[in-house]
Amino acid sequence: MVTWSPSVTLVPTHACFNACSYCGFRHAPAAGDPLAGALTDTAAAHQLAAAPQASEVLLLSGEVAPSSPHRQRWFARLLSLSRLALRHGRLPHTNAGPLSWREMAALGRLNPSMGLMLEGLGPAYDALHRHAPSKTEALRLSQLEQAGRLGLPFTTGLLLGVGETAAERRSALAWLADLQRRFGHLQEVILQPWRPANEPARPLDPPACDALLDTIAEARALLPPEVHLQLPPNLWPLPRLVEALEAGIDDLGGIDTRDVINPAYPQPTPVVLAEHLERQGWRLRPRLCVHDAWLPWLAPPLRRQAARQLRRWAHERGWRC
Ligand code: SF4
């Protein structure tokens, strides 16, 4: 079986004070007010209404510097959009960059799961983040530890194919495995092939696929078995998807109709994926943004909301609860 999360992505703001060299998502912040044009609750409610199938609301945001006088207003938008998602019966999953302890704790009370990519360890990543003060390696590592100390079900991942070595991939996976043994909060690790931004789609070539299959197998061997391994299906050739599953992938992540990070790579529809996989003996099943094993970690209101969605699916699909 392989899982996916029916998802809709809300972008509070594309404005970001970082400038990661691979990013095609960022807009330069407007002078004076970096939050000019930020997503309002009204506009977000329209997007939710247009995606009734989405149980997960992925809040993916550009960042405002911790020292900025606009930080509090930016953070209030994240809280407000999380509450809006819950009011609409959905489950928010926020990925908005490094957060203070208090910010992460406050969002964790409204988000059943949250995320931050480790991306990787080593000089290739340092070069990508040369103009991104909040993406230093030390900060990324400490954020993942902070989520563990707060007991938040968490998603992280590696960005692969940016010039890192096989040994650096291995050491990032080994660090995540050690983190999981300490805190147990890593519900999934995304193995994301890097694709160039602002260019027409360029499918992964066979050697890159082969190297990624080795990394998937290595991740499966190194990470504790409860950690799900995720591959974005729009960044991987469909004819080779089963090879990735056989190597250790068991999740295809949140699937919306578009990928706001890699807009040149349209998502295959769940129907296309399910039919392709069924022909090869695999079953595709929806999941919540928080994987089942971490449901007991949630505060009662979030657990009840998650349980309602699971009951809805059980009713529609004849599952046994
Ligand atoms: S922090 Fe995120 S949004 Fe900002 S530049 Fe880097 S990748 Fe882009």
Structure write-up:
The protein is α/β, with parallel strands linked by helices and 321 residues long. The chain has one domain: Aldolase class I (TIM Barrel). The protein has ten helices and nine strands. The protein has helices at residues 41-49, 71-87, 101-108, 123-128, 137-150, 166-183, 206-222, 241-247, 270-279, 300-317, and strands at 2-10, 56-60, 91-95, 113-115, 154-160, 186-193, 228-230, 251-255, 284-286. Strands 1, 2, 3, 4, 5, 6, 7, 8 and 9 form a nine-stranded parallel β-sheet that branches. Helix 6 (166-183) links the parallel strand 5 and strand 6 (186-193). Helix 6 (166-183) packs parallel to helix 7 (206-222). The longest helix is centred in the middle third of the chain and has 18 residues, at 166-183. It is globular. The model has no long low-confidence stretch (mean pLDDT 96). Bound molecules: iron/sulfur cluster. Iron/sulfur cluster binds at residues 16, 18-20, 23, 25-26, 62-63, 97, 132, 135. Residues 16, 18-20, 23, 25-26, 62-63, 97, 132, 135 line the site of iron/sulfur cluster (SF4).
